[in-house]
Every structure is written in structure tokens, then in C-alpha cells.
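Lecture 7 notes. Example A: sequence first, then its C-alpha cells.
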Amino acid sequence: MITRTTSLLSTAIVATCLIAAPAASAHAGDVEGRNEALKRAFTSVGAAASEHVVQLKSSRGSSIGYAVAVKGEGGATVFVTALSTVAKADGLRLAPKGGGTFDAKVLKRDEDLALALLAAVDDPEIDPIELGTVASIEPGAWLISVGNADIPVAVGVLSAKGREVLKSERQANLGIFGLFGGGDNKGPQRHYDAVLQHDSPITKEIFGSAVVGEDGKLVGINVDNVYRGSSYAIGVERVRALIDGVEPPKPAKRPARIERPAPRETEKPAEPKGNRPFLGIAIEERAEANGDVSFICDSIVAGGPAAKLGIKKGDRILSVEGKTYGSLEELGAVIGGKKPGDVLKMKVEREGFTRDFEITLGRR
């Protein structure tokens, strides 16, 4: 278990929630009460961040999620959202906090990142949000999910970062006493290379919302909620990767025409080909009693590059490329900096014995 200290503000908020919560805190009503109390506590953070968030609407006017204003190539403002929110949309509109709607179009869809990049047809005059870093937050930190209103849509605690999520093969019904939030949960329905996992109670209607730290800076974008207490966000470094190399069109300086429907896209942008390295290991970061960090192979993808060479679940990673690392983010950056086909050198320990591997990375 990784134990982290929190700020005085966080400690005060926890104390308030514990005092207010009745003993039977497992009931859904108590969970909602905790969330409402936390949302009120972080209203000032939510109000500031919501200036940079728009509600995402379909051409029929129904809400399908949120998108966050970020600075694109050349300094123009673009909007990032969860890929799932635009997967079936035939026309998109952006609804800022101040009112009105603006037609939008998809600039880029990235299946690997689970994100999409949008541009407004007209200029909504929304300033981009300030980007933070995943390195600035640690497990135990408060994460505030923000829509286009002053009060946050949800607040929770970061439980893991840089976590690889494997697609579940589970078919059984897990709705035991409502513990997992519903009766048809089948686990993650897709693979994620690395996510921020937090316990904010988000739903698909608020996918694409901004995830900010207590300083109000963007650290991620909400993309999924698998079980109650297990929400996933894509870290801000991957948001930067989505923006990189995209040249958005310059928006026209004319008023939004909210009375006409958004034009249908006649052509879908070409889907990017997967060109990311694939190791096939879900790595868990553990804090040791002496303060050091160790990395454990939590699960191995059958038939993946690591599995083919005999790496097993429970193996302890001693070094990668001849070096040791202080965090999962540092280790992930080294692996992520490789290309498919590159050879990754890894030393692992199993049952007191060490072994060196040279793993040829696959393609995702």
C-alpha cells in the first residue's frame, strides 16, 4: 500500500465528510451525500476551471459529454474529449458556460489514446486551460472533475496512475448488492495503455470532463467508469501527444448560429494507424518499507512480447535499459519512448534468481 500525506485543506474536507456520514456508509445515498459535500468544498476550484470546459451536444441538442479547451498548434484553441463521446455523433455543438452553442468538427480521433480533438467552426472565445503534470499528483490526492458549471460534477481520490488496463473477458453479472453500481458490469471493455484511476462517481454523460488537481490545473480527461469507485482518466501528457502535430483551421470571427443544425460530416478523418510500442505487461508500483519503489508484473498479456519470452506474473522488475527508476511514470516514459520493433533490455527477479531479457516490442 502506498501511503501519502495530504494538504491541510484535504484533511479538513475528509474530517467534514466523516463527521457528516452516517454509520451505514455503504448505502448509495451515503455515497451521494459524500460526493455532494466534496463538490461544495471544491466549488471555487470548479468555478475557475469550468471557464475552460464546454458541454458537448449532438445535432439534436442532447448532451453527450464534455470537452476541454486547450492550446493547439499555432496557439489556436482546440477542444479535447473522450473518444467515446464522438464515436456515433453525426453533428457536434459546443455549449460554453456563458451560454449559446457553436458548431464543431472532429480534427482527430485516436483509438490508442481514447481521445478525440475538436475545433469550433466559429470562435467561442474560450481561453485554454492551464496544463499541469501527472508527476505533480500522487495516490491519495484529490481529483476534481469539472463540467461547464461552477460546482464540480464529481470529486474523488487518486488511487493509481500510469496503470495499464486490460480488456476484461468477464461475462458474469457482478451486481452484488449494488456494490459495483449495476447488474451488467463486465469489467473494462477495452484496453488502456495508462490511466489515472480515481474513485469519483462519474457516468458516461460526463465523459470528456476535465480532471484537475487542487491547483485547478488540468491533469487528465475522464474517459470511462467500469465499477463504482473505479473511474479512468487519460493523463495530461497523453493530451499533449494528441495535440502534437495537429494544425487546426483558424476559426472565423462571426457570431454563432444557434438556430441551424450542425452540418453533417461528409468525410470522416482517416483513422490513425497504431504505432505505439507494446510490451504486454501491466506493471504495479509498490512502496517498500525502506522508502524505495519496486515494480511488479501484475498481469501478462497472453501471446504478447513479454509472455513469449517467459516473463510471468509476480516477477519483480529490477532494471530497464540498465537503469532503475523512481516512479511508474519514469519507467513508462522510457518504454513509451521506444518504437515497435525496438529491443528493450529488462532485468527481473523471480524467487531469488535474476534473469536478463531482451524483448522485441510489438505494435499497438
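Example B, a different protein, same format:
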Amino acid sequence: MRTMRAMVLLLVMALIALACGDGSDTTTTADGGAVTTTTGDDGGATTTAAEAGSTTTAAPEAESLSVMIANLRSIQYFPVYLADAAGYFADEGIDVGEIQIVSGSGAAIQQVIAGNVELLISNPAASISAVAGEQGDVVVYCSSHYQNVFTLATPTSTGITDIAGLEGGTIGISEPSGGEVPVVRAAMATEGMVDGEDYQLLAIGEGGQVTFEALSSGDADAYSSSVYDVASIEAAGLELTHILPDEFVYVPSIGYSVLRETFDNRSDVLTRFARATARAYEWGKLEENREQVNELIEPYNPELFEDPAFVDATWDATLTLMTPPDEMGDPDYCTHYIPGWETYVAAALETPVEEGGLPGEVDINSMADQSLVPAINEFTPEDIEPPGLG
């Protein structure tokens, strides 16, 4: 039987599947609010999904930095999109050009290692694996999100408030190949329960009407999927109780990865990039600014904003994901939660490589570098105001 740490590893490796895309070879670029998607096929089509919406242009002396993000969801990554749209990058002397969106963190980190892109914003697990496999010397110099993108919840009306209450029940999932499936199995295993014996999994979709009806009718006693799928059910009016055990919540989530050569040679540029996102975060997280933030980042991902209730639910889920554990207090932006890293690496080393384990050791203190954090946070309350909005 796998140890608990190995089970936690499965959760983290599964997290990449949703937080970092669907693994396809689709590349999307966002330039000042214009979103372009290019397929990986020969002669692939390119479509423009929005008109340019940036309110500022980079200063002539701005230094370029190529950036890649793991998915297009502009609320989930609002500090980056807001920094672009509201002039924080320009104010810090950074020109990000077209922000590239590539599904699949494994493929994305290879783009960094190959030198095709300098900065990747994604789950750090693929970066850790690359370092352990000696594929490249990668540094993660900033953590922006702290909590697991997958969750497990029950309709409050069921009265089920913990994992043990699901014995003999049915747990809804998005689909059999969904990244949440290892999460469910690992969480249920904490109570000694096995899939197919002590509970059943049932595919009920990704937060749409079918999902809502399955939970409302009792066809499913619980639902596990991304926090965004779960948020859509809550936005539709079904009250849910979240029951994912605490040990599955705080794992490496979203970070900024670069090659060590880039880290050493362009630390000032990387600092200014992260400072721009930190400033954008501080202003963008405030509820009184929400309407204006939405207007600024909507052009990057218009379809996300079609349902106001879902927009609100997505904001709630995102701000939760970005909330650090209580033991960290109120950390500076970009600070790593090292215990989460230690849990992940220890679990990975106990797991066979063919099951997602690490092929070698990782020096966490070296890889999860925090030396730039003080400089990243060198800004005043006045600096939080969007520089590009007059």
C-alpha cells in the first residue's frame, strides 16, 4: 500500500492536469487584450478572439521578457493580466509582448529549458521533475497561489461533513480521466476506503446542468472537480459543504519558473516583473475595484465573463487559491510555503518514477529561491494604484 505521502504526490501530480491545461499542443497568445489561438497542426488556423484592450504601451526603454502561462483563465491569473492591461509592467520598465498560453505544464517547462520562453507561470511540479531528472536547472522564484485547485464537496442537505460519511456512497467527478480522480482516491484512502469497493465514482460533468441535477437528485452524494467547476454549482444555487482533508489543501500550486541562467543574469527584470504583479494583486484583490478590474481583464478571455454569477464565483475561488496557510501569517508576495514543497518532494521520492515519482533528489532551498522576495515587495501604498489609468 502506498504511504500517505505518496498519495499526496498523486494529488499534486493530478493538480497539473487542470491548473496547467489539457495537455494539447494548442498555443494561445494574449497581447494587450487580443487573444490569438494557433493549433499545432501544419497550416494551423489563427483566430483573433478580442480587440486590443490595453490602456498603456511600454516605455521605449522597457526591457522585454517572454512569458508563458498554463491556461487562459484571466481571473485565475489576474495579477499578470491586470499588470499588463493597467500599466504596471510598463511602469516597471517591462515589455511582456504576447503572453503565450500553452496547455500542459510538462510541455511548457520544456519550452523554458529549450530557451524558447524565459518565464513560465504554472504549477511547479513539472519544474521539480525536470530538475530531479537533470533536464534543466530551473528556479522557482515566486509563489502566487497556495491551495489545491481540486476540491471535494457534498450538498449541504446530505448532512455529510467528512470523508468517512461517503462510505458506500457515490462521488461525482467530471470524467473518468479527470485530474480530480487521484485526489478522490487519495483522500478516501485516508479512511481506508477503496474505489469500487467502498464507494463508486460517477462522471457527472464539469459543473453544468447535468452536474447540478445529479447532485440535487441524489444520484451523487458528493462532487470532486476543479474549484471553478464546484464554484459554478454554488453560483447556480446549490449549497455545498467542502470536505477535502486539510493535508490535501496546501501543496505547491502556482509559481514563476525560470532557468537558473536567466535567474542569475536577469534578476532585476524578474524582480520588476514580479513587483508589477504584486502591485496589481494588491489593487486587484479589493472588492471595491472588482468592476474596474473585470473591465480591464475581460478582453483577454471574454467567454469567462458571460455569466455574472459565475464571474463572482470564479473570483471567490481564485482568492481562496491565493490565500496562504494561517501559519504563514501575512507573507510578502511571492513567498514560498516550504513545508508544502517538502511534503511534495518527500512523497515523490517514495513513488516509482513510472507512477509520477522523481528520478532524483531536489535541493528545495536552492530551487525554491526566495532571495528576490524583499526587492519584489519594495513598493508603497501609493504604488498600488494603476499607473496606466488616468
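Note on Example B: The chain has 15 helices and 15 strands. The first strand starts at residue 27 and ends at 31.
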